[in-house]
UniProtKB/TrEMBL annotation:
Designated name of the protein: Acyloxyacyl hydrolase
Keyword hit for Hydrolase: yes
Taxonomic classification: Eukaryota, Metazoa, Spiralia, Lophotrochozoa, Mollusca
GO molecular function: hydrolase activity
Classification via InterPro entries: AOAH, AOAH_Saposin_N, GDSL, Saposin-like, SaposinB_dom, SGNH_hydro_sf
Keywords, ordered alphabetically: Disulfide bond, Hydrolase, Signal
SMART domains the record matches: SapB
Domain Saposin B-type: 37-116
Domain of life of the native organism: Eukaryota
Length: 585
């Protein structure tokens, strides 16, 4: 067995680590330690589940299955995989061949353990196990037996394992940490915060730079010298109309009131999407890992297909499908001079505390740049951030108020005049449990036994759930979370009432969270709520949901705040005729 198993390892790390590695700011104290094995335990569990199910589906040996999983990984990751497989492979073969199941296997491998005073975390029991008769051993006895089976493979007895210390996996962990840490474009030679490459906070997140050697050239700036000779704001419009001797920027855009659009948000705005094809043994294939590197370097977010900053087309249909619609696309349709003027300043796990820092990565110069529409959409993490006492870790209404005002003060100092800032209320996410709780999680599609309810509680037992208040079988806790979310929305309404006249450079707005309207609209047209929810985590809105939110938000703006959107540019057709796709994305 010389090939790598690490595709599975990678995707498991991804499954679990997005929140751990995506923790917003470095100075933030983690609210919990790695309890009961935490991310490593979740990763191991998914890995064993996938390998066992895949072997059953393909009727292949464990060695063949591991070889296959390695073979479908992108070539860049193979050396790490090889190293990981050398270490873990033999033990996995023994465990999977004896069909001990993910729960027992990962405790035997010591990636899962039980901290003093903690409950023992259990994941899934494969159906075959239930049918196997035999001595009725306790869980501890089963783990002990499994440990004995693999003992001769283990070089020395070990304590609890950190999966990132496994050879090979270490490199992958380092790569993930690096990818998840950046909040500024990593390729940005001229340091203007706009990039010529996609991932690592590049053009997937902010309009593509059209010169990475000039820091005065970037999307959203007012054209330099009217862009008579070159395109300084990357909207594809430049040159002089020979008939009139006027610049095209002046003629086609001058009176059009150009504006950009940005979002200050969390994983919903960044559009977190872990392809279920990575976890579901019935769907896994070579194809689904084709763009793994870019996906990871985008923090498993899809800002290029998201509600606020979606643009261009879907090049990744093997792992994400659905309509693309966004505020940016609609604002660009309204005035093509706004081409490429979008910024997605959102991060997984972000809340009102972290946003006070993250907002500093919004790139806007109050003198040189066009106005911008900024959506402040922190719709959940302020009620999501803690263990063991979830409620005690929630942001208080007063802190929400203060954090938000701090962020607005920063915007006051940096936004061009005539900008707009729209604060959005928090979501009541009880819909998640109500519509997902009894459905089967993709990691167990073939076995059919692991519901989202069980998945949520497993994550809570490991203290790694992205939101312990919503994603729980405890109805009392879900109600308490809803109560706090409403109090925090009320804090934002109060910020609006107190400060709507405080800032001369932007108009402040408040809108209620649009999710209930989006869901209502979907259900009215015959859909079901779960169809709008991300399958891998049972938490985020999926591509259909993202596009639907754009539509609902736009309608809200059009009817209640049309001044935000600016006029329709009568020259749009002429721009299209002269400048085609305006340089694309
Ligand atoms: C699975 O593979 C084994 C060995 O190659 C073979 O004997 C068996 O018939 C196969 N079972 C099915 C259901 O294909
Ligand atoms: C999508 O793919 C096409 C063709 O391969 C490429 O030209 C284009 O740049 C890609 N777009 C994005 C946003 O990746
Ligand atoms: C923005 O408006 C303020 C107040 O009206 C004014 O003092 C300031 O000069 C303006 N800034 C720019 C860049 O026009
Ligand atoms: C939660 O709130 C809903 C709606 O107010 C109510 O119907 C339900 O009984 C509550 N559940 C619990 C466990 O308190
Ligand atoms: C449900 O959550 C509430 C609030 O955190 C807690 O007081 C209660 O003990 C929990 N119930 C169970 C059965 O865990
Ligand atoms: Ca530049
Ligand atoms: Ca231009």
């Amino acid at each position: 067995m010389s090939k790598e198993l690490s595709s599975a390892v990678v995707l498991l790390l991804l499954l679990c680590c997005t929140r751990g590695f995506g923790a917003p700011t470095e100075e933030r104290k983690p609210t919990h330690e790695n309890i009961n094995g935490g991310y490593g335990c979740a990763a191991c569990t998914a890995l064993v589940a996938i390998v066992e199910q895949l072997a059953e589906i393909k009727n292949s040996t464990v060695v063949e299955t591991l070889d296959y999983l390695c073979y479908i990984l992108p070539v860049e990751l193979r050396p790490s995989c090889r190293a990981a497989l050398e270490f873990l492979g033999p033990m996995l073969v023994v465990l999977v061949e004896h069909k001990v199941g993910p729960d027992v296997a990962c405790h035997a491998l010591t990636f899962c353990y039980t901290n003093p005073g903690q409950p023992t975390c259990h994941s899934m029991i494969p159906p075959l196990h239930r049918r196997l008769k035999g001595p009725s051993m306790t869980f501890e006895e089963k783990v002990l037996e499994a440990k004995q089976r693999i003992q001769f493979r283990m070089k020395k007895t070990r304590g609890p394992q950190n999966i990132c210390e496994v050879p090979g996996v270490k490199d992958i962990c380092n790569w993930l940490r690096k990818a998840f840490k950046g909040r500024k474009p990593s390729v940005d030679f001229d340091n203007d915060m706009f990039s010529i490459s996609q991932g690592l906070r590049g053009s997937s997140w902010r309009g593509k730079d059209c010169s990475d050697t000039s820091r005065n050239v970037y999307p959203g700036t007012k054209p330099l010298a009217e862009d008579r000779t070159f395109d300084s704001n990357c909207n594809g419009i430049f040159g002089v109309n020979k008939k009139t001797a006027r610049s095209y920027e002046e003629e086609l855009c001058g009176a059009s009131q150009p504006r950009g659009v940005a979002v200050l948000g969390d994983s919903i705005s960044a559009h977190f999407h872990m392809p279920p094809q990575w976890l579901d043994a019935t769907l896994i294939s070579e194809k689904v890992f084709e763009h793994l590197i870019l996906v990871v370097e985008n923090e498993i977010d899809w800002p290029m297909l998201s509600t606020v900053t979606g643009h261009g087309k879907n090049n990744w249909t093997e792992v994400i499908t659905g309509p693309i619609d966004s505020l940016y696309l609609r604002i660009r349709d309204r005035n093509r001079c706004n081409h490429r003027d979008y910024q997605n300043i959102a991060a997984n796990g972000e809340d009102s505390i972290g946003m006070q820092n993250l907002v500093k990565t919004l790139a806007r110069n109050p003198q040189r740049d066009h106005p911008i529409i900024v959506l402040y959409a922190l719709i959940g993490n302020d009620v999501c951030n803690g263990y063991p006492d979830t409620v005690a870790h929630m942001t208080t209404p007063q802190a929400m108020y203060d954090n938000t005002v701090n962020t607005l003060e920063h915007l006051h100092a940096t936004l061009p005049n005539n900008s707009h800032v729209i604060m959005m209320g928090l979501a009541d996410a009880r819909i998640l449990y109500n519509s997902m709780g009894h459905r089967i999680h993709p990691v167990a599609t073939h076995w059919g036994h692991f519901t989202y309810g069980q998945f949520y509680d497993f994550m809570n037992c490991l203290q790694i759930s992205p939101c312990s208040g919503w994603l729980t079988t405890n109805g009392t806790l879900r109600n308490l979370t809803a109560e706090r979310a409403e109090e925090l929305s009320e804090a934002l309404r109060k910020v609006y009432r107190d400060h709507k006249k405080s800032y001369y450079n932007f108009d402040l707005h408040f809108i209620e969270n649009p999710m209930p309207n989006a869901v209502r609209e979907w259900v009215k047209h015959g859909g079901e709520a779960w169809q709008l929810i991300e399958p891998s985590d049972g938490f985020h809105s999926n591509q259909i949901g993202q596009a639907l939110l754009a539509k609902v938000l736009w309608r809200e703006f059009e009817t209640k705040h049309p001044e935000i959107l600016g006029p329709v540019n009568p020259n749009n057709e002429e721009i299209g005729r002269l400048f085609g796709n305006q340089g694309g994305y």
